[in-house]
Amino acid sequence: MLNILIVGNGQCGNRILDAINKEAFGGKSKFAKFYSQQKYKSKVETIAINTAINDLKELSFTKAKDRIHIPHLHGVGANRTLGKSVFEDNKSHIMRNIEERGNFDVGFVITSASGGTGSSFTPPLIKEIKEKHDFPVYAVVVLPFREEGTLYLQNAAFCLKEIRDSGVDGIILADNQFLKQIGGNVQSAYNTINDMIARRILFLLDALDSEMMMVTDLGDFKTVMSGGAGLATIGFYEAEKGMNIKTTIQKALSPNGLLFSTDVYKEGSRAMVIIKGDKSYLSIDEISSEVEKLSSSVGHVFKGIIVRKGEAPQVLVVLTLEAAEELENLYSVAVDAIHQEREKKTRIEEQKEIDKAFSKIDGLEPNY
Ligand SMILES: Nc1nc2c(ncn2[C@@H]2O[C@H](COP(=O)(O)OP(=O)(O)OP(=O)(O)O)[C@@H](O)[C@H]2O)c(=O)[nH]1
Known about the structure:
By secondary structure, the protein is α/β, with parallel strands linked by helices. The protein is 47% helix and 19% strand.
């Protein structure tokens, strides 16, 4: 049995964590958490951390003991400099809470890259965990919609770089912009995206702690995640009625299944393909031919099969990337955003000249 730590930082991280707990508690009544057992096979500890109390109150499936409020008004308003100093002041309190929960085999820290709290807490938190413990820690990072504004774009660029430098064992990317194809209003898009990420993480946890017909385990996951440029994404697909396993694997690797825009066959570096379902659907020939196709372009592919009586086939692919054109695009837009913010700051500095003009009449009275 694996001991797993999942931390959700900031509003986005909290909500995805809550979606994970929703699934884990059976996904039904919001009171489920009070009386039902989580359906994890592993021992999973979840912690939601936020500066905004209202974001924590909004959670429905995460127990009160699993919420850490770091008092700071109503969040840090996308200001990462402020966020980092609030983390520093509260670091020991956060670390104590994690340490009281025992030892872990693996940890995941979930955050948006672009807000204030999650994006500034995550890099130093991972650094702190890695310095004190020797279990692998993976960041699950949500990229912003590109039209959300200059501050979010610059935050995303700096946050990702800092997470990479934190000692993290790998970054799993999910992109709101890419996933917005799902449609609907923002709130329902968020819920759908959060459920998509939650389902993938739970499938992964299930697979890492399963007795499979053909085994993949935490060791294989670590090897996959250490490949490529330290970046990864996850694909998933559940077969529709009558769909064969070959098509299901292809769908998991296509934009329909992935959390981040990538051409798997061009940008992939290593992969882990996990297939779950009733034995009758799992044609070994079809599985082998799809896995061989993938390994001929990405290199090594680990394969795992979990037989679950009566279940429709589901496929999960963890894919590390050696290149990420979409991320390069994001950084180009972010650099423009950083320049725009800098110019704005210079303009504001110049406006201080206006204050000087006003100050010329300080102490004088009008005469009539
Ligand atoms: N997928 C998804 N993205 C979200 C959700 N909530 C916010 N975001 C995205 O997260 C970014 C904003 O970050 P938040 O997590 O809200 O910010 P925070 O970490 O709480 O930081 P502050 O509010 O600035 O203190 C934006 O890019 C949003 O689009 C959510 O529930 N799901």
